[in-house]
Amino acid sequence: MAVAPQSAEPMAYHTGCRDSLGQLYHHHHPWLQQLLSRRLGCGESAADLAQDAFVRLLQTPRHLDSFDGARAYLSRMAKGLCVDHWRRQDIERAWQEALAARAEAHLPSVEHQQIVIETLCEIDRMLSRLPEKVATAFLASQLHGKPYRQIAEELGVSERMVKKYMAQAMLQCALIEAGFEASL
Amino acid sequence: MVSAVSHDEAAKRRALAEAAEWFAEWQAGELSLAQHERWQAWLEASDTHRWAWQQVEGVSQRFTASLNEAERQTADRVISSARQRRRGRWHLLSGLSTLAFAAVLIGLSWQWTPLPQWDAYWGADYRTATGDITRIELEDGTQVWLSSASALDVDYDHQQRRLQLVAGEVLIMTGQDPERPFYVDTRSARLTPLGTRFSVRQRQTDELLAVFEGAVAIQTHGDADHASQHQVVDAGEQASYAVNGIGELNPADGSRAAWANGVLLAENMSLKTFAAELSQHHRGRLEVDPAVADLTLLGAFPLDDLERSLHMVETTLPVTVRQVMPWWIKIEVAGSERE
After folding, report:
1. ipTM
2. Does A139 touch chain B (CB under 8 A)?
3. B167 close to B203: Cβ distance less than 8 angstroms
4. Residue B335 has pLDDT above 80, yes or no
5. Cα R_g (chain B), whole angstroms
């Protein structure tokens, strides 16, 4: 059970204000780090992510109106951070494997690889809500410029269906791009 | 995280769904003439539509902007393998969002009935795809150049020689045949040439006749509110006309004949007009930043070589040509880079 703050009154925080954020940090940081550590099974990553969470709260201020409200919010945030963390890990691992398979003489610079990985994470984030075939069709068209007919053959669906997939995928991405929906 | 959706947001969401539908059409690669016009009309119909299309553009750029060719080849394997790893962890795919998509798709598909012009295009005796120019020689020696994305019906019998312009633009050099009169019927008028070389082009709302040799008589069809009008256009003159009347005579624009030789002739032509002309001959979208739209060009540009034409523009004007997507090119102020 978490340790409640000294006063029994509900605790309100405004995270744009340093003092208030300091209080939030004091009250919830150990709890958050523990939560993240349990989820990720890695203490070091958990410490980093907990730090990230507070940085984000400072950058995009929120008003949290009670002790429990703050915990509920942080818990949702932790979930999102874990998802992002896993995504990055997956992408990084898959990228390293692909790079190893290419076995080229000169590898791209570390900076450039980071940009590529970031781009891939972004694409992955956008497509994350989409069903498998829809995402596959969209990637084939956007990254390889494959014609619908070829995509249809590869997926075993009609060309009309590919066109529907494309519209569906683009709508989902555009909703995220426009800020109407969050990615998973 | 459910919040009330404002009226504005609802309109924007609807526009995004429509933009996504158009995007899927564009990506299919083959946009018909009628569809192209419908898309253009959709885009220009409102700021919300233009905003929505910008979002689509933004998404598309994410996929290409910072990846080179080799990385793009690897990218989808990387992403799909990451997705597979993840599937074990997530059971959270919302069936609801899939249902919403289906509703949007059904709601839009009924609007997509092809225009009558589209049927006529495919049924025409001669037609050209975007980017093609065809030369046709008819039995009386009449020569016809059919411009990009155009269609023509030929109806010759022992009494008359009749051409029907179904879509686009033709340049005609009439052959001699004193026995049979020669007509060209267009959407809004009958043209009667007399041993001439002239071009006629059907545009969205009117038609443009340019005469280079001899003379051509226009007889508009007229309608319930407008009487039929008659006008003779002589060599070196051009006139625009529609069902409801004929505009004033102007000096003939050489570019209306030059395309037959695969050339776009620009004589102090604005960049905006230049792009519109070039667009007639290429699929995809050629957009001009309003800041440079009124710069003027002088020169002969190859119609069949878009890259070279645009390069020529880049070297003569303070503009940058940017390929936003494979099918979308923007001409912008030189040095303006997207952040």
Report:
1. 0.72
2. yes
3. no
4. no
5. 24
Tokens coding B113: 């009935």
Apex CA B113: angle with CA B109 and CA B114, to 5°? 135
Instruction: Determine the pLDDT at residue B307.
Output: 83
For residue B27, give the nearest of A126, A166, A184 by CB distance. Answer: A166
Q: pLDDT at residue B143 above 90?
A: no
Beta strands in chain A (DSSP E): 13-14, 63-64
- Residue in chain A closest to B5 (alpha carbons) equals A180
**Above pLDDT 90, what percent of chain B?**
9
Contact state of A175 with B13 under an 8 Å Cβ cutoff: yes
Q: How many CB atoms lie within 10 A of CB B112?
A: 10
Chain B residue with the nearest C-alpha to that of A134:
B98
Query: Residue written as tokens 């896993």?
Result: A86
Distance from B229 to chain A by nearest Cα, in Å? Answer: 47
pLDDT, tens digit, for every residue of B157-195? 888 889 998 888 888 888 777 788 888 998 888 988 876
pTM score of the predicted model: 0.48
Sequence-distant (6+) residues with CB within 8 A of B166 are: B117, B120, B121, B124, B127, B150, B151, B152, B153
